[in-house]
Amino acid sequence: MKRRQRGLAVLIITLLLIIGSVVYIGIARNNLKTPADYTTAGNGTVELVEIAPGSSVSELGPELVERNIVKSNGAFQKAAGENPNAAKVQPGIYRLQGEMSAAAAVAALLDPANKVQTLDIPGGATLNDVTVVGGDTRLGIFSQISRVTCAEGAQNCLTVAALKQAAGGVDPVQLGVPDWAVAAVLARGDDPRRLEGLIMPGEYVVNPEQNAAEVLRSLITASAEKYQETNIVGRAEAIGLTPYELLTAASLVEREAPAGDFDKVARVILNRLQEPMRLEFDSTVNYDLPNQEVATTDEDRGRVTPWNTYAKDGLPETPISSPSLQAIEAMENPAEGDWLFFVTIDKDGTTVFNRTFDEHQQSTVEAIDNGVLDSQREE
Predict the structure, then answer these.
(1) CA nearest 69: which of 44, 52, 88?
(2) Which of 196, 206, 292, 325 is most buried as measured by Cβ atoms within 10 A of its Cβ?
């Protein structure tokens, strides 16, 4: 009887050991299948993470692990795979936190509130603010950069003064200025406007952890790459200009020409330079005025500045705005024509191109009659 009891006890113990082993193995296997993961939405320490254009969320995993934002790449890949919206994350810079659960990290990337504001520079923008006569102030690129960075908090806020100091004081090469523009930039001394035209219009992601010089360098470098893609050096040589002169001429096209007429205005510029005759563009007069409008006065046009093409021969010494890709391509591939004059004759933007001064005068009278060239300045 005792032998039976001992045998039964041994059997029970054996079964318990087997069951325990099976449970242990099951738990161990489950742990192997479940990657290590944090369990909270973060520790409160903000971490800025960039998703580059053309990359995917899944590519971000190793970096997040290295920076201790998520516990493991496996957990992050699993969370991204289980979230049907993960593929919709847009390029940009996002605010995450340290020690986030993988699911929380993916959710944060999908929350628009966590995306750092982008910088959107329109065609024809200038570095400094522009006050329009009888109207509003158009924010310049310096102010736009400041507004974007300051939206991220005082710690990362770049003031307009800091940006101007970097623009005028840092070596142009260190700012990413292309080789063909360095000499012209240096010739302007410490004037912050020496970088005018070197930041192409477009949408940019500004890293709020960068200082003023680093932000300007990232913008100028990205723009220089776009200029290079147009073959600006080769095309400038083909039309008898240097690349910097082509950029400057394109800035005039951007400010003077209505949509659809960029290539015609480009041809007028080249025709006048070849005559030679002064360009006499009101946009070059306005550039250095504290208050701007389409019409200019005799006094304004008589002011001698590095930009006023009524008072100086040739092109302005620098661009007067940021030319769009369309304006640059128009200068690189101008329309065929013998025009020397053009004027917008109505408020719909209709522009007339003429060869002779008499024809131009007739078109100018029409523009005046339609109120296009009326000045709103106080006498």
Answers:
(1) 44
(2) 196
What token pair was written down for 118?
A: 């982008």
The tokens describing 30, both together, are: 């489950």
Q: Which of 106, 40, 102, 46 is nearest to 73 (CA)?
A: 102
* Cα–Cα distances in angstroms (integers) from residue 211 to residues 214, 216, 372, in the given order: 5, 9, 44
Residue whose structure tokens are 């046009």: 301
Nearest of 82, 86, 60, 83 to residue 73 by alpha carbon: 60
Low-confidence ranges of the chain (pLDDT < 70): 1-33, 152-154, 294, 373-379
Looking only at Cα atoms, what is the longest distance across the chain?
132
Phi, psi of 270, rounded to the nearest 5 degrees: -65, -40
Torsion of CA 153, 158, 161, 162, to 10 degrees: 140
Contact 285, 303 (CB under 8 A): yes
Q: Say what the alpha-carbon torsion angle 248, 167, 94, 151 is, to the nearest 10 degrees.
A: -110
The predicted pLDDT at position 128 comes to 95
pLDDT at 237: 96
- Gap between the Cα atoms of 60 and 97, Å rounded: 14
- Token pair 């049907």: residue: 84
Predicted confidence (pLDDT) per residue in 204-263, tens digit: 988 878 999 999 999 999 999 999 999 999 999 999 999 999 999 999 999 999 888 999
Which CATH architecture group holds 46-116?
2-Layer Sandwich (3.30)
